[in-house]
Write a structure and sequence with these properties.
The protein is mainly alpha-helical and about 425 residues long. It has 15 helices and four strands.
Length: about 425
Amino acid sequence: MSAHDDASRPGPSGPTSGTGPVEPDGPAGPGVVEQPGPEPDPALPDIAGCERVFRRNGLPLLVEGHSLDRDVFGRSAPFLLVVLLAELTGAVRSGWPAWANALALLGGAAIVAGAYAGLNVLRARPWSTLPQSVGVPELAFFVLVPALLPLVFGGQWGDALLTVVGNLVLLAVVRVVVGYGVLSSLWWGLARVTDELGAALLRLVRLLPLLLVFSLVLFYNAEVWQVFDRTHGVADLVLGAFFALLVVLFVGLRSPAEAREALAETAARLPGHERATRFSRGQTANLATMIASSQLLQVLVVSLGMGVFFMALGTLTVTPEVMALWDVDGGTWRQTVSLAGGGGVGGADLVVTQTLLRVSVAIATFTGLYYAISVQVDAVYREEFVDGIETQLADVVRTRSRYLTLLDSREVEPPVAR
């Protein structure tokens, strides 16, 4: 091979000539070629993917720049719009004819549209501007304007006040449910209950003997049936709400300490992720809400199971003859169930009564409260539950470490030359 052939052969950096290799100009300077950097791993999530992981795990407050008007009420805007449209029925009156109610609905829609156009004008916007975010002005509009309809169409001050209070309560619920990712937490908790159904049943079996004794003694007590046979329906609702509040208090008071404990254990297990385990007060509250939601879901599953069990047990064993012996009427309604052949059990039909439903719901509520208290002091259950939370939290912390790194790199990224 000749020297001329060697000089004219392309090299690894490009063609060469007799005067030596000539490198093309690169961004770093003339004659310098930058080596391409490592390609990003497509398996790792980007910023948006990390934020989806946070929301899916019920921790939306880990998203940097999380705001009420965009991430809470803004995401709930379609739901709030549906509620606002439903509240147009506040202009309808039961004593009016159909044509008058139709005109009232049109008038109510005109009042709402006119009030929103006026709000835009007051804010120096074109009257037809759609909301860019859901802030204080939009929330005040949602609370107050629908309350005008009962006042304008019938002068119903009580309905107007009820509308204001109801909308305020609804916004508070949206603030908690969406702002703290309660639905995502419940979904994770349901998946956890499904995946660990065997372990959950074993934990329940440990508590089952005392639980059944406690429940059966109450269920086959004539005085309990007489009480719920003669109480008003409102009293049942108040009693159920009271015990549900007790369950929430027992679980909620323990959750902040569990959140701090889980964060500390996760930081110890992941020494390279100290920054990602430093949660603000709001983020720690978000974690506590996620823990409480999953525990409350377990209590709900146990209560529902016990309620169905006692409904079936009462239908089979508490017959009309037993209720007559206990001086129990059965409530305002009853349903007779005839099995195949029409003979029922032992030649008698099965009867489901309102009192049976009330007693079963009451026993299920008592059982849920007992279960909630028991698991708070059961060391084995606490260890298993906290381990599961720490496993989930470790995945979230790793994702947050990458998320914070991506945010940092985006902030220091130099502008692209044009």
